[in-house]
Amino acid sequence: MMRQGDRFGRQSVDGAAALVWSAEPALTAAEVRERLLSSADVPTGWDPSFGVG
Fold first, then answer.
1. What are the structural domain ranges in the chain?
2. 46 SS3 class
3. Which region, left, alpha or beta, applies to residue 14 given φ > 0 means left and ψ of -120 to 50 means alpha?
4. Looking only at Cα atoms, what is the longest distance across the chain?
5. Which of 16, 7, 53 is nearest to 37 (CA)?
6. What distance in Å separates the CA atoms of residue 24 and residue 11, rounded to the nearest whole number?
7. Please, which residues bridge with residue 51 across strands?
8. What is the DSSP-derived secondary structure letter of residue 53?
9. What is the rounded radius of gyration, in angstroms, for the C-alpha atoms of the chain?
10. Are the C-beta atoms of residues 22 and 32 closer than 8 Å to each other?
């Protein structure tokens, strides 16, 4: 089954945020968000596995 749409990616991001928060519970939500965003790969252009998104 091919999974498409942002709802499938959200579960992975939620899990990553939970892991960051469990490792450093003193972080604010904004700090967790910044850590996730700063560690993300943002590909440009077309990808054979993911298309453009």
1. 7-38
2. coil
3. alpha
4. 40
5. 16
6. 20
7. 47
8. -
9. 14
10. no
Residue 1 has pLDDT above 60, yes or no: no
Task: Give the distance from CA 30 to its chain's centroid.
Answer: 14
Tokens of 12: 């992975």
Dig out the tokens for 8 from the structure: 């499938």
pTM, entire model: 0.65
Which pair of structure tokens corresponds to residue 19? Answer: 């892991």
Q: Are the CB atoms for 20 and 31 separated by under 8 Å?
A: no
Separation CA 4–CA 7 (nearest Å): 8
Residue type present at position 30: A
Which tens digit of pLDDT belongs to each residue from 32-44? 999 999 988 777 7
